[in-house]
Structures are given as C-alpha cells and as structure tokens.
Amino acid sequence: MKKAIIIKPKSNVFFKTPPLGIGYLLKALDPIEGVEGVFIDCQLRDISSEELIASLRGREGVILVGFQVFSDVYPALRELVPRIRELFPHAVIVAGGPHPSGAPEQSLRENPGLDYVVKGEGEEALEMLVRALLAGDLAVREGSIPNLVYLKGGRVVFNRHKLIDVDQYGPPAWEQLHPERYPPVQHGTFHKSTRVVPIITSRGCPYDCTYCAGRQITGRKIRRRSITSVVDEIEFLQKRYGFEEFIIEDENFTFYKEHVIGFSREIRNRGIKCFFSFPGGIRIDRIDEEIVRALKEMGTYMVTVGIESGSPATLKAMKKSWDFDEVLRNIRLLKKYGLIVQGSFILGFSGETGDDIRATVDFALRSGIDQAYFGNYMPLPGSEDFTRLLEKGELDMEKIDWSAYTSYYGEIPYHPKAVSREELLRAVRSATFRFYLRPRILWGLMKRMSHPVFLRNLYYRTSRLFLSPGGAPGQPAGN
C-alpha cells in the first residue's frame, strides 16, 4: 500500500482544532485504490520537527508528503523540506494552505526540495497528483492539474485556477481527523459545551477587504453545500462522537437569507438539540430580523462581528462598506434575541495614527458588545495590502520573522509608520484592559465561566498578552 502523508506543522499559536481543510484532502484520497492517506497533526500532538522526522524514518511506500502551511509555520517548512527530501528522495513534496497560496514563488524558490505549491483549494489537485504518481506519468499530466504552481527552467508556472463543487465533496473525512482527540476550547475562550467541533456549510467571499487573503484559497464565488448534507453531518457527529456545539466556520454564512432560514428550519424539523457559535464572524451588514431570529431558533448563542475599526478613514482604506449607525443598529438587533456579541478590531492598520486607534477603542467601548478582540494588524501574504506594502518598501520578504507573524500574545511584527512597535503593543493591551475591566463585562465573563477549562484558557491567553515581553527578537517587519 502506497502512502500519501499530510502534515500540519507545530505552531506557536495555542489553538488546536480539527483542520477541516486537511479533512477534505483526506476525503479526496478515499476513492483512490492502493493509496492510504496518513495525517500527522504536530500541533495537536505537540510534535517537534525532530520528533516528526524520527517518526517518519523507516516508513515505506511514501509517494507524497504534503504540508498545510500558515505563515507562522513557514520556518518549519523550510527546516523540514530538505530533511523530508533526504528521507524520501523519490516522493513528491507539496505545500498548500494560506502562506503558499499567498506567496507561491517565495515558497518554491526558498525551498529547492519542494516540488509543487497548491494555490487555492487542493482536493482535485491532490487526487490528480496521486493518480499520476501511481500511473507513473506525472511529467505528462503535470500541466493539466489545476491550482498547481511549480518551477520549470527557472520560470514559475501557474496552472489554471479551479474551484471545487463543495456539495460534491460533502463533509470531510471525520474518521481520519479523529475530532474526539481535540481539546474543548477551539476558538476564543468560552463555549456553551466542552464537546465542540467545527463545520462548514459554504466557501467563498465576494468582498474586497484589502487586509484579507481568503480569496486566494476559496475564491470570490460563494458555493453552498446542500442543507440536507450539512445537517446529516451534524447528526453523524452527534451520534458518533457526542458533540453538542458546532462552530460554523463559513466566511459568509448569512450572505443568502434562504440558506440561513432553510438551515434553521431543518435543524428544528429534525428535533436536533445543539448549540451553534460563529467565533470566526458573520457580516454585520448581512443580517436582518428574520436572519437573527432564525439563528436564535436553531440554537445559536454567540456571534462575532468583524467591525475592524472605529475610524472612517481606516474603514475606507480597508474597503469596508458599512457605516457606524448600521453597525450599532445590528448589534442591538443581535442582543435583542439574547445573542452574545463579540466584536473583532484591528489596531495599527497600515497608514493609521494614534487618533485612528483611539477612535477604534472608543467605538468598541460604546458599541454595546459583550466581548472584544483587539489584534495588531497583520499584512497577510496574497492580500492587496501585503502587495502594496511590499511595493512601498514597508515590508521586506527577507526581513520578516515569520515565526512571530501573528496577532496573538503580544507579537508586533508590523506597525504603521506613525505608531511605534511599543506604542502599538501598549494600545492592544490598554484596549483589552479598558474593555474588560468594566462591571457589566466582568459579570458577563463570570457567568460564562461554566467549566474549569475555560478559566485555564482565559488565564493562558491573558498571561501571554500581558506578561509577554512584546515580540520575538530580531528586526520587526515594517521598520
């Protein structure tokens, strides 16, 4: 039996959640006879690069090794690729995920042992790669495999871009992901249950937010799975693993009203008792009373809304289309139905001043939301902002410390010219203090402290933010 190994490298970010993207890759391998998909989650199992290499040594029949790469684990990819090449000299090595999709040429040129990058969705590309390897004619089929990027004669070749039919694939390969092994806190700090799992009902985003690189993976077109398929998946996850709360990871769950209402109706018609949360966010301008009522009736208790900024100039630069009165109205609407509302905010966006940051914090304090996340701005590879900042010389690919490229734990790898690294870190900490050290907010946190694991997680996040020295050593990006 040949083996296709898919690896999620270890990250400094503490989230440990079943990687749905890898679950879909494993699903794509299922129909291929003679190949076993092997998944290694170094993040979940706390496996170092040394331990990973040791665990792979001596394995036979490996024809492909793939990596899911976010920007903060890009250094791990650079370390692992030559060692994987040494272990499996005849295997194909491929990298996919947000970082290679946003920076395919860098990923290829800086990693000579890397054969391919998958830019965008990888299900069809992986299946075709493996079938070509089994047939022994990859050199012939190479140019026809969608979303593949590779070097040929020193030139970067981009194959045609293609989006999959998400309804055709249905749910991911849950049995191979082993979702029961993951911890009870998967996003944020609190959940209704300690039996939590993520799902998706659609992919794609048509919006032009300059800071987002999501379209590099899922494209502009919103592609929905059938409601029946998703609810069948929920029933399976409940019966097989006992999950009680489902995190909907869609980029645009509320974009189509009929999708929300139909989903809610199906949950209720089947008599399914569960909770839903949206820590990844819903669009604040794509809700109305019917949608919010449907969210509540299906069991939703918490939503995040990506407000991002309280500065009109910053919102315009981000290509955000809403106004503050609409945001406040819709926050009140969500709270009318008893939903916990979390706002996410970006501090230190490119071109911002101290006044812009203060406007954002002031808006968060008066908005009426129950929770807030203040993150320092991260220019993501593949986003419009990242390209612009490279062209302006505010970012230098060779100087970026990718291991510290995160908006968690007090790392500040980028800051705008008008705000120093230290000032931005103080602003993030001050905003968090000012928001949460208010009686209404503190009381709300205490009521949601329903399990010791949530208290431990809150302590961990707080200590990392406020006790961190404020960044990794080395030259911070943006200087």
Please specify the SSE layout and strand pairing.
Layout: E1 2-8, H1 20-29, E2 35-41, H2 42-45, H3 49-56, E3 62-68, H4 74-87, E4 92-96, H5 98-102, H6 104-109, E5 116-118, H7 123-135, H8 138-141, E6 148-152, E7 155-158, H9 166-169, H10 174-177, E8 196-199, E9 202-203, H11 215-218, E10 223-224, H12 227-241, E11 245-248, H13 257-269, E12 275-282, H14 289-297, E13 300-308, H15 312-318, H16 324-336, E14 340-347, H17 354-366, E15 371-376, H18 384-392, H19 421-436, H20 439-447, H21 452-467
Parallel strand pairs: 1-2, 1-3, 3-4, 4-5, 8-11, 11-12, 12-13, 13-14, 14-15
Antiparallel strand pairs: 5-6, 6-7, 9-10
Helix pairs in contact: 1-7, 13-14, 17-19
Give a concise summary.
The longest helix has 16 residues, at 421-436.
Give me the CATH superfamily of the largest domain.
tm_1862 like domain
Top CATH class of the largest domain: Alpha Beta
Structural class: alpha/beta
- Sheet with the most strands, sense and barrel status: 7 strands, mixed
Give the domain tally: 2
**Second-tier CATH architecture of the largest domain:** Alpha-Beta Horseshoe
Low-pLDDT parts are: 470-479
The whole-number mean of residue pLDDT values reads 92
Report how far apart the termini are.
51 Å
Shape designation: globular
Strand content: 15-25%
Q: Helical content, roughly?
A: 40-55%
Question: Helical segment tally?
Answer: 21
> From the alpha-carbon coordinates, what is the Rg to the nearest angstrom?
22 Å
